[in-house]
Amino acid sequence: MLQSLWNNRVMVVAVILFAVGFTTLLLHRNLIKKIIGLNIMDTAAYLLLTSIGYIDKNKAPIIVDGVTDPSVYVNPLPAGLVLTGIVVSVSVTAVLLALTIRLYQRYHTLDLDEIYMIARNETEKKEDKK
Amino acid sequence: MSFAANFPLFCIVFCLICSVVSSLLNGKVARIITLLLSIVVMIMSIFVMLMVHLNGEPITYIMGHFPHPWGNEIRMGLLEPFFASIFSLILFLSLLGGERHLSSDLDVKKSQFYYVMTDLILSSFLVLLYTNDIFTGYVFIEICTLTSCGLLMIRQVGRTTLASIRYMIFSLIGSGLFLMGVIVLYGITGHLLFPNLHEAIAKLNVSGEYKIPLLTSISLITVGLSIKSGLFPFHFWMPDTYGYATPSSSGILSGLVSKVYILYLLKIIFNVFGTNVFYNSGIQHILFWFGVCAMIIGSIDALKENNINRMLANSSAAQIGYIYMSIGISPTLGVVAAIYHIVTHAFTKPLLFITSSRLCDAANGSKIFHDLQGKARKYPLTGALFTIGAFSMIGIPLTMGFISKYIIATSAINTEGMIVIPLIALALSTILNTIYFGRTLIRIYTPSDSETCMIKPKVSYLVSTIVLALINILTGIFSTPLISIIQQRLEFFGKVG
Amino acid sequence: MKTNKIRNWLKTWDEGEFEFAINEDVVQPTTTDNAQSQDLEHPWKTRHVDKIEQKEINIFKKLYPFISTFLCLVIVGFLILTVIDLPTFGSANAPAHNEVMDRYIESGMDETGAVNVVAGVILDYRAFDTLGESHVLFTASIAVFILLLSIIDENEPSLEKEITQKDSLLRSTAFIVVPLVLIYGIYVVLGGHIGPGGGFAGGAVIGGGLILYALSYGFDTLDRIFNLKNYRIIITTALCFYSIAKCYSFFCGANHLETIFTTGTPGMIFSAGLILPLNIAVGVVVALTMYGFYSIFQRGRIG
Prior knowledge:
A: mainly alpha, elongated, B: two-stranded antiparallel ribbon
């Protein structure tokens, strides 16, 4: 078992990062740290996906000199999936950051629990109750 | 392959183009485009349904020049266009019904963005229903997440921004787990398209290789999608989300968004893992027990609420529990019951949210029960429609809710070893439902002397709520065609086994 | 007596005054029986039900490190057990390296015309995913518009702070670097099917160049070129072109018709069918979206 842990060390690191990011996103109370945790989680997932596609001692899948032998190149499919995933991750981070800015402008704190308590105790103002 | 097989592609591309173009136009034109778009999608989906029925077999449509496993595909059985037409109809009716609140909640200069979001959410519903590929599903799940947050955020009150960030965080946790499950599945099979995945997993099941990764990917995908649809214990975001959004958004979110994730999960269970592998892995017990807990705890939370919209939201959490409990019971009758309950809830919840918004209008915007006393007497039609919706949730005969509880009970009785607990849970939660819905009904019909704002109802509101209520009652009385469609055409969803 | 008690209890529940009722929207009067000083800054801290919640939050604050470490270790353990059983890292016999990969590499250049096989995969074999992904980016920019875009009337005074750094070191560096960055970005976009790169990477580089320019020289020139109307029209045109081109391509593919776009000679710029125009469209969208995010986060408007 230790041998396979060492062989798959890249995947093990990816998985540890995923758990770290996941726990940060779930349990931390500061909004910016939650967003950082989300990014760590997503990046770790893409690291795992890329490491699945890797073949030892092979080159990147750009065809040089017309050599189209599959045993020379790395698997191109996971690379394409990671490209898609990175864009999704960036979009989600941008929206979360915009939400954080909005919440900060309104409640002047970044602590989600405190924001929740403040929001519970305000009456909805007349103009909110349209 | 007849021309109608191209319709799903056309529907999806129409939605995408309409959404992009709507961002340039002003609010009123964008609204008209969205309403027209949903009608067009509904009509096209009905054509697709007829065509597949005449064809006799599900049709696979290649997206591009390359068949599976190299290119992307979509698949049309009978259930997929059926749900596509239902979802576009409910989207249309929700947008109509909430019109008054939309015009007052939306900032005039930004109202076209709301309709961009509704077009995109319709496109993500279509893709999640039709797709035959697991990674495309992930990309459009992310679109669905972002657009449902957009539907919430459009009403810029402090409470909704907070609710949307909470909703988004929970949703992203679910997406992250789903993505991890997909990656592990790709690592052990090397395929992303459903038919190929099914073959590869069947082989792995027989040979016994990669047992633990397979189990992990099943649980990650299931847990990820159930977090996104709001299964206990991940339903905390529901009261805040549905409670403070504008009524159209509440209707779309509670009626459609959570259901589309459950339908996608059912597609994956049938087409990727196969019911044998899934129901032997033990995950269905987790779904079953969490469903039972959701039914009871959701109802108890609804009892404690003092705000009508939050009560309806907690009731939604309980209804999601019904669906998951039925999935956990059996792959044949249980899943039929779950799908029927999905249709029931999709038609009933928007009706409840829209009529309750009008009752709150009568109380000058307040949503607290104390202020809602007697409002149904001043607005008799709205009161009657709310009553029909409430009866459907409780399960009184002549409504859809009764038939769906009946089917759930039948499926429980017909499965060995699963007779006692589902029936007890059903009975208990029906009693709880009766208590809190009954209390609401008594409250809104008790006469009171408080002032009422008499506002004339808009024609669109009347049309949408009456149509929803009529569908509810008609399907409650003539329920057999619908049940037989679901039961027979379930094979088109994927073979059992 | 007992029925009276039950009746009273039911009445308090119905009226919402039951102690554990969730009174989210009603501010209770703070005339409870306490001689403690009212916490004016945090009025909720003196409410009875919220005091219970405050206690719960305090307990959670103390237990937080232990809960989070425990949860993290559980997930790590669960996933490591999985990952040990996955195929060995780097092995050529993994299930992932199957006939799918073989065909992509062997026939990729002939069927799609792209020398960069990954560009062929994402823009031809699996083009539907990329269509969805560009719309994810569009959705995110619309969501940011909803939240932060303050569409200012011309009559309202501008409340903008002075944000440009008139820093001579920054300006003289940017004077040399920005043109190089922009040209490199355009090269990456155009050469996406011949070498590494593509619309996404190149678009990000161009967006970075625009942001650097805005940081050092201010927004004036950029506001003239990318005012809100132009910005939205360019993005809309690019995305519509993408959707229509892909719809045409999927329609031809599913009905087994020939498209008008030929694959050409691999290695030439004008080859690979639709891949070059799609790369340009995606590059434009990504670059403008990155610049738009920066502009909105910085000052709440574009142009």
